Amino acid sequence: MSMQNKKAAVSNQSTLNKSDNMRKKAGRRWVMLGVLSLGVAFNYLDRSTLSIALPYIMKDIHMTPAVTGVILSGFFWSYVIFQLPAGYIGDKIGPRLTQGFASIIWGLSTALNALSRGFFSFFGLRFVLGAAESPLYTSGSKAIKEWFPKKERSFASGTFNNASKLGGTVATPLLAVLITTIGWRLSFAVVGGIAAIWGFIWLKYYKTPRQYNSITEEELNLIESDQEEVKEDVSKELPKYAVAKLFKQKTMWCMMVGFFSINFVSYFFFTWFPTYMINTYHLKLLTFGFIGILPGIAAMIGGWIGGIACDQLYRRGYSTTISRKVPLIVGLLLSCVIGLAAISHNIWFTVTVLCIANGAATGAGSVVWTLPADVAPNSNMIGTIGGVQNAAANISGIVCPILIGVLLGISNSYTLPFIISGIVALVGAFAYLIMPKLEPMKLH
């Protein structure tokens, strides 16, 4: 080999080594985020199955709108009840065991819907599903805290939150095809089995950054670069009844009301949206599958914008408080347009309005899960604060489907539910506006 060829070979090898090092340096935390996000996508695929199959189930089992609303709320009763225990357990045993076993249980409970015959079996399995999925966001938030520096956390949280929209978006056409091909019962079995398999993968794969032998020192230093403030505070003893003291904090109440409002708008899309579109505009399920995907795509775009906007504001020197509040308030104000669907008689105007509302709500939601780490007195309270926030927020999942079902049974119209949703979004924007400075809460 000539000297020139040797130099070229050495240069090429050096370039490959640098490329490999850069991949390793940037790779581990993003791979972990990808695996976590995949689990959230499967989670929302499972959640969406009932609402997509609902027009078929209501015909087969002859359920009234009011009864259907109660079944749709079954998930959220247990989801709310188990938020605090789930947050506490997640803080104690960590994201690996919490997420892994929860996913296996929620997958099995989804699959068993294939055997449901009426109200009690549907409601009972939705209740189990809600309990199993309750740790998802609190332990996911803790995993992001373990794997990402503060300056990247909003983007990571936005990606994590966006994965739920990906699951819901993919679910619409996928389940439409699946249900029309193999029926709604077998469709439950298929999507439930996928979630259970992910649970086993998570149990095998997840580790903290320092437990990974293959992680580079550069990436480890980057991850830990701005977590010193939490490390210094971990040793501080919390007062007795720390959880009870959270409810005396204005910040906590603003977080709860704001997130309730975001979810109130979002949960329309995960409960009554398919039935509304199919019955109001007389669509076939397959046709809806490809129109109904649009609000989900808007939600994914909105989620990315919300997370990126928050990170960019923070990187440009704005305070944590400003960088979080701006996407939250703007997102909820834009979500108010859902009220315009009440006066629409045109399918494309309706879809446009609902796309804006869902995208804006998701943009706000992408920031929500950065707040527990911002205000926790120490890292051992992140999951608990997230659990309190999420429990309050998901009361909307009980109220929204039941309210729509009752109003639909009385008036056979979605007008009032849309108007109420717009008002709730406005209240949420106000809650975030008056939220105090984001700093560790003083519980002593």
UniProtKB/TrEMBL annotation:
Residues 32-439 form the Major facilitator superfamily (MFS) profile domain. Keywords: Membrane, Transmembrane, Transmembrane helix, Transport. InterPro entries: MFS (IPR011701), MFS_dom (IPR020846), MFS_Na/Anion_cotransporter (IPR050382), MFS_trans_sf (IPR036259). It is a multi-pass membrane protein. It is found in: Cell membrane. The chain crosses the membrane at residues 63-82, 103-129, 182-203, 253-273, 285-305, 326-343, 349-371, 391-410, 416-435. It holds the Pfam family MFS_1. The keyword DNA-binding does not apply. Its main location: membrane. It comes from the Bacteria. Residues 1-19 have a biased composition (Polar residues). Residues 1-21 are annotated as: Disordered. PANTHER family: FI19708P1-RELATED (PTHR11662:SF399), SOLUTE CARRIER FAMILY 17 (PTHR11662). This is MFS transporter.
